[in-house]
Structures are given as structure tokens and as C-alpha cells.
What does this fold into?
Amino acid sequence: MADKIIPASPSAGDYAKAAANSPDDGAWFARTDPFALFSEWLEDAKAKEPNDANAMALATADQHGAPDVRMVLLKEVSADGFVLYSNAESRKGQQLAANAQAALCFHWKSLRRQVRVSGRVEPATDAEADAYFATRAKDSQIGAWASEQSRPMEGRFELEKRIAQAALKYGLGKTPRPPHWRGWRIVPDRIEFWRDRPFRLHDRLEFTRTGPGHPWVTHRLYP
It folds into this structure.
């Protein structure tokens, strides 16, 4: 059964075809600013990925130190870090509050590229959260009030009832940001860029620093 489910290992021809479809001159190894390089790769992904080029896996740790991971969306990136927004009362929100360390992984399958990020987490400001919340679709704003994210519910009808109640309250005029809907910024001390290469001999470039504002140091890593 496993042989039918798991794809076979690529052949030499498969590797050659993949390499031909993702040319790269290797100049990115000389880059010194990981945020500039990330922004370029993200733009490439926006042009190639079928949807959600800003999707990323967010890894946190629970109260027992066990890892927990889920897909979320990147909403801002700058030299200050990578920003996401969500319900602070959700599982991830509670974990980030208890242990302000996190890791991210972007995987752009169409480009055969990956970026890994890890570092400390700091809260986005209320002004930042307000500004982003104001750009969301009205139904998404109302959904943020209605959903008790990560908590058990009786069934879909319970959620729909809460959405209807929130719509009656906030459907007209400006919808305020719920106090539990917040943002977090992952301030990295490590960013690794990965590119698929034939025969699993991948290219890897790691940026590390000892703290925000400190210079980045680069290393090429064995695949």
C-alpha cells in the first residue's frame, strides 16, 4: 500500500527536467541582506504559486514543550521582522504568550524554494493591528468577532448563529477590531534560504545574527 501512496524517488531525467525549469545563476549566495532577498523570492512566488504565496508554517511550543505547527499567512515583512495576525485566545496565541519564540517555514513548490525563519516574538502595536484589521473584508471582520478560535463548538450552526449575532451588532458602519485580535512580529536571529538541486544536493544559505541591529553573518551549508 505504501508503494502506491508515496511517490517514487525522482529519476535522473526527473532531476534534469526540474533543474532546467528552475534556472539560477547562483548570484544570491553573495547577498548580504536577507530581507531584501526574501522580498525578491516572495515576488517570484506571487508570480508562480497558484495561490497564497504568503502562506507559511508557524511553529510554536505548547506548555509541555511539545512542538505545534499550523499554516498561517504573512501580512507584513520588513527589516523589523515577519508579521502575522490572529486571535490571541487561540492555541497559537496562548503559546506565543507563554513562550515568545517561534519558527516559520515558507515552501514555494512551483519555484522549488524554501525559507526558514526563527527568532523571538514581540507583539505588534495596537495601531498596526487596527490598520491591518481595517483592510479586511467586512465578513472577515465580523468573523473575527464571532469565532472562538481553537475552542470546541457544538456544530456549524453554532458558528453561524454567532456570525449572525455579530453581523447585527457590527454589520453597519465601521467594525472595530476585537480586543483579542492581535498581531505578532517574529524578529529573526536566523534565516535560511534553500533551493532544490538535482540528486538532493541542495543549495543552502544561512543568515545569523546575535540580536536585532547586529550585522548578519552568512554561511553556506551542506545539503
In short: The first helix runs from residue 2 to 5. The mean pLDDT is 92.
